[in-house]
Amino acid sequence: MTNIIINADDFGYCEGVNQGVISAYKNGVVTSCSIMAGMPGFNQAVKLLNENKGLGCGVHMTLSCYKPVLDTHKTLVDESGYFFRRITKEKSMEFDLDEVYLELCSQIDKAIGAGVKISHLDSHHHIHTLEEFRPVIEKILEKYKLPIRGGFEYEISYDKVVPLIDSFYGENISNDYFNNNIDDIKKFKVVDIMSHPAFVDAFLSKSTSYSIQRTLEHEILTSFELKQFFEDNNINLINYNNIGESEGI
């Protein structure tokens, strides 16, 4: 049997994302999410987690969206105090790794302090997988000892890495996606399938070009047909908290 984690990224981004994620959990196949500690919707997201105890929640570490949790950085932000929107290899090499470590730990600690039972770690734009940040991620894993989403550019000696399928995105979003990719999905005992369900609100539409596509993701992830497809193909829906029950990673 294949155990899949349908993880909704960007929880806490804004109200539209928060409500879309909760809807995809309550009415669909989303089993897990990952929260952004520095975003405007963080407090609402924490409240919603308290009301939906079965939804697993990790931390969506970010260095490339909105503002950091800490306001002391010199290399991570622009002159207005916002993160740089995209982190190229060249830009990442300008970052002070001590600042990166302190910021990511602060995001994790903010979630812990808000009462979130953290199930795992992943990141916005997959920044945790970049070779340039390897020393930081290794220190974070040593400190928190949490499962982490895979997709690394480098070899990592860690026994809690969950494989990632990140192709349910952009032009690949369709009602046939899971049927078309079932062979790849079934190669794994446990796999994280990244998703971004949401309802579009003003903040989302103004802050990212990836907005309307999220409503299509929500429609697919809440369809009866997809639930039935998983049952017919002997696919079990879990979250990161259930990994031990699924005989490990």
From TrEMBL:
GO terms for biological process: polysaccharide catabolic process. Keywords: Carbohydrate metabolism, Hydrolase, Magnesium, Metal-binding. The keyword Magnesium applies. Gene3D superfamilies: Glycoside hydrolase/deacetylase. The keyword RNA-binding does not apply. GO terms for molecular function: deacetylase activity; hydrolase activity, acting on carbon-nitrogen (but not peptide) bonds, in linear amides; metal ion binding. Its cofactor is Mg(2+). It comes from the Bacteria. This is Cellobiose-phosphate degrading protein. It comes from Paraclostridium benzoelyticum.
